[in-house]
Amino acid sequence: MRRIKIAYGDAPSTFGHLYLPGEAARGAGSAPLVVLVHGGYWSTEYSLVVYTGIARALAERGAVVWNVEYRRVGEAGGGWPTTGRDVVDAISALDGPVTDQLATAQITVDRKHASILGHSAGGQLAVYAAARLGAATERFAFGTVIAQSPVLDFTETGAFDRPSVVALMGAPFAQIPNRYREASPSEQEPFSSTVAVVHTVDDQSVPIGMSRRYVAEAEGRGQSAVLYEVSGEGHDAFVDPRSAASRQTLRVLGI
């Protein structure tokens, strides 16, 4: 396994870590590709390293992993809409510098069935970016977007009044409701990926009812969406490769 740092922009936080699985892990055929978007309240208190264990676990199973960083609240340029745009740009970088590295390493990936995976705040960013991209870049198509214990509706009570969401948006909902709607996955036009929400039942940070409502409403407006509930674990289980939540995520990925 190798990890390569690749810049997709000029700002210090516009980069990602590309994980290349070893030949034995890849086996024959094309490797699956997974984009990771880390969580952490959209804040500089957390970075892409919180997903390092998951990235390594996926690469050990033969996946090519693109673990992306983005500008967050607390640094120059962080906050909406830049944070969302960074994730769109990071995923679009698959077509350029990431593809170049794959060619150098002589690794072939399954471009028609790539996946995007995001935890918590990263779940919101993953679904938002997939919607904005129309579930594809020029060279890659995303069949599944997995959101782990996410906040997917910025227009509901319990979401728009969260301090982390207000900090991301830059002002309370009552002052800039259209900005909240523009950022909210629940307000995006349907796109061709399936949004697979994996939520821990005992989550004390993001109540599971939020995901139940999102999935029901998404299906009603024509967005393919499914909910997987994981009992006995909380919000942070998704950053532990050994957890039941991570095992469920692997099943959804098919890795």
TrEMBL record:
GO terms for molecular function: hydrolase activity. Residues 27-212 form the BD-FAE-like domain. It comes from Gordonia liuliyuniae. Keywords: Hydrolase. This is Alpha/beta hydrolase. Gene3D superfamilies: alpha/beta hydrolase.
